[in-house]
């Protein structure tokens, strides 16, 4: 490559170079740990560590593949230069961004995304207590039976959505339509592969 061609290529931003260096260092660190485990003479521990690394690679590979698919989709091509919206609305990609504290939207916006994405929008937001991590929602179906099976289905849907978009939510209080009666406390657990965000 000529000197002119080299100068025509803009240098990578400092932040991007730092991330690349961190990724390379992390890769070397993983290899060192696997080598130490192998040298320790415990085949079971070494095999478990290698399986864990493969599982994590598969998990993040699926996330990257999803990013490529979304950016190449017709909706992204027609989004008028705003492909980020396609990524932020996807559960898998949003979950990875939240996991690494990279999601550009604030918590209220992400909670809104989670609830808006539920089929039929079965609940509406009442409020969120940042001190306790408790989110209060109300059933949006005034004609609902309120039976345990219906509440369980609602619970599963809310938990799944919040685990991806708003891992900071630790529990949900589900109120019946109109806010009458005692709310049902739903404990939130992270979707497999996604760890809840640690409290600051």
Quick rundown:
With 200 residues, this protein is an alpha+beta fold.
Low-confidence runs:
1-10, 194-200
Let me know the average pLDDT: 77
The topology string of helices and strands comes to HHHHHHHEEHEE
The computed structural class is alpha+beta
Write down the Rg. Answer: 22 Å
* Residues in β-strands, percent: 5-15%
Residues in helices, as a percent range = 40-55%
What summary fits the major beta sheet? Answer: 4 strands, mixed
**CATH topology type of the largest domain:** GMP Synthetase, Chain A, domain 3
How many structurally independent domains?
A: 2
Q: For the record, what CATH class of the largest domain applies?
A: Alpha Beta
Q: Give the CATH superfamily of the largest domain.
A: Fe-S cluster assembly (FSCA)
User: What is the CA–CA distance across the termini?
Assistant: 48 Å
